[in-house]
Amino acid sequence: MIEEMFNAVSVVSYVPGRIRFHLGFQGDEILADYLRREIGRVGTAKLEAYSNRTRNALVTYDEGRVPEVEVAQALLRGIQEFVRVHGMCDLENHERNHEKEKHKHAHAGDDCDHDHT
Question: What is d(CA 1, CA 47) in angstroms, rounded to the nearest whole number?
Fold first, then answer.
């Protein structure tokens, strides 16, 4: 799965200090959070925008301080971490499914005091 996702990443446009990546797979705000976190760890790099509709991620950075390869590696680390945590999720219903997952647990015949709907 991760290899397929990595292979689906391409560079749409590049000028020193600015790279627009296309992620050829479905993502959501949670993916954007992982990208933002990993990219933000690289010097001056910043995820400026991510679009669920176009699946594009715009990253800016100071080209004098951060090599573009580090920016690309950070983007891939963000994808890798997203897949590690959410790889089996149905992204079309991501938030709704995670709400259900929070309440899955065994009660061993005991009644519980919260709603499972």
Answer: 24
